[in-house]
Design a protein that fits this description.
alpha/beta; two-stranded antiparallel ribbon
Length: about 300
């Protein structure tokens, strides 16, 4: 579809209030799901990240890479085993996780951002002991529970005008490497940075009242409402830990958290720079009292 010059100008004018709202503030994007696998979507995400950086948003990209880890394990003849949705990580698997996340995926994303005209530096949770961890569950091996997040390396990169691209591997004081859940890491990092927003890219449109009907999207969920939605099954399965990470991010100081559909091109810009949005926003703001009710 061709857009006239006047149309382009109109788009920018409509985006101006949102640009002003976010300029100079930190936004953490948790990048995963289909948007990491599909090359066209990956291209779209990198363009969004570069554009946000160019308009003054302090964008932090936190990524996982489960499918590529599974693929690499297959290549060496190692089967992936999961317990409660988490990958069992022995020492050999931890080495593969480090290699794939902190190496291949991280550096490829840095290169893609550079190809789009952005400036990025790749970091892992091991750099500067950014993400310190301990064993989460003996059954899972080297799957880490975060004990401390040091955001000084991230702030140093931001202050020098670069986009931090962070792979979610952590370590302890003995040098052990831990596989860290990317949703949890993104929430912790966003909280420590006092981020304006955390945007979690997923393979669904947001939280639906009816999981089979995309028209039943719930646009806003307040922290006080989340337990009820989990109890009645509206939020279930693999979405429960993702939602818990969203709620925790708010408790740790993030202003707003979004779950958006990473399968939609330019989903980040649509969510941040339009009045429509495309996902579910989580907020700590209480519900408005009903008439006659004491606020």
């Amino acid at each position: 579809m061709e857009i006239s010059n006047a149309g382009r100008a109109e788009v920018l004018v409509h985006a101006l209030p949102y640009i002003q709202e976010y300029t100079g503030k930190v936004v953490v994007v948790k990048y995963g799901g289909n948007a990491m696998i599909n090359e066209d979507l990956k291209d779209s995400v990198m363009k969004d990240i570069v554009l946000l950086s160019l308009i003054g948003v302090k964008t932090v990209l936190v990524h996982g890479g489960g499918p590529e880890i599974t693929e690499m394990l297959k290549k060496i003849g190692k089967e992936s085993v999961f317990v409660d949705g988490l990958r069992v990580t022995d020492k050999e698997t931890a080495d593969i996780v480090q290699m794939v996340l902190a190496g291949k995926i991280n550096k490829n994303l840095v290169a893609l951002i550079g190809n789009k005209g952005g400036k990025a530096i790749g970091l892992s949770g091991m750099d500067g002991h950014m993400i310190e961890a301990k064993v989460k569950d003996e059954r899972l091996g080297f799957v880490g529970e975060i004990t401390k997040v040091n955001v000084a390396p991230i702030l140093d990169v931001i202050d020098r005008g670069y986009i931090p691209v962070i792979s979610t591997v952590g370590c302890d004081r003995e040098g052990n490497v831990y596989n860290i859940n990317a949703d949890t890491a993104a929430a912790k990092i966003a909280g420590e940075l006092g981020a304006e927003s955390l945007i979690s890219m997923t393979d669904i449109g947001g939280i639906l009242k009816d999981k089979n009907d995309p028209e039943t999207l719930i646009p806003v969920i307040r922290t006080e409402d989340a337990p009820r939605l989990i109890a009645d099954g509206t939020i279930g399965g693999g979405m429960i830990p993702k939602v818990e990470c969203c709620i925790n991010a708010l408790r740790w100081g993030v202003n707003r958290v979004f779950i958006i559909d990473g399968r939609i091109p330019h989903a980040i810009l649509i969510e941040m720079l339009t009045n429509e949005g495309i996902g579910t926003m989580f907020t700590a703001e209480p519900s408005a009292p009903t008439p006659g009710e004491t606020p």
